[in-house]
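Whiteboard transcription, Tuesday session. T.W. wrote the structure tokens on the left side:
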């Protein structure tokens, strides 16, 4: 009888340990969208009547980055690199699915409906600290357009990469 109880408790304990160690499924979806100025660039007239064409202003693209995961209540972003540049970012749980981006009559579905948890990673700005990627991640930063380093409540560290960020049609500035 003691052996059965011992074996049963050992089985339950090993199952619980295995369930905690199971890695979550992590999927990354990344998009970028540029903006087009709503007003055509105009020339300036210099002294003497010479016309000088003005340069079109370039706007930094907007990034739409989503992490789809199961089995993790939240994540913390350690680092995020976009095109080998280090950025500051925040992460928020998405409350409504699907995630759709609409520009006029055109709709882009960024994340379809899923039973898994979805987080949006919002880029705040460039990180000006000058921190270089460590050796273990430097190759990934060089060969991927997007690299995210995350950790979960248990302290597990995850690195997710995206070879290419999907480019969406440009939005019109208003």
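and on the right, the sequence the group agreed on:
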């Amino acid at each position: 009888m003691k052996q059965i109880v011992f074996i049963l408790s050992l089985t339950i304990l090993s199952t619980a340990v295995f369930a905690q160690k199971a890695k979550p499924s992590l999927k990354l979806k990344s998009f970028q969208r540029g903006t087009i100025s709503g007003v055509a660039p105009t020339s300036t007239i210099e002294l003497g009547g010479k016309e000088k064409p003005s340069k079109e202003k370039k706007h930094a693209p907007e990034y739409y980055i989503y992490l789809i995961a199961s089995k993790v209540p939240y994540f913390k972003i350690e680092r995020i690199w976009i095109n080998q540049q280090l950025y500051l970012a925040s992460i928020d749980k998405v409350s409504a699915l699907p995630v759709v981006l609409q520009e006029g009559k055109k709709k882009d579905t960024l994340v379809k409906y899923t039973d898994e948890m979805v987080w949006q990673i919002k880029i705040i700005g460039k990180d000006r600290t000058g921190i270089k990627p460590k050796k273990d991640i430097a190759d990934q930063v060089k060969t991927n357009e997007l690299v995210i380093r995350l950790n979960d409540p248990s302290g597990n560290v995850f690195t997710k990469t995206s070879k290419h960020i999907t480019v969406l049609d440009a939005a019109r500035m208003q």
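Someone added at the bottom: The radius of gyration is 23 Å.
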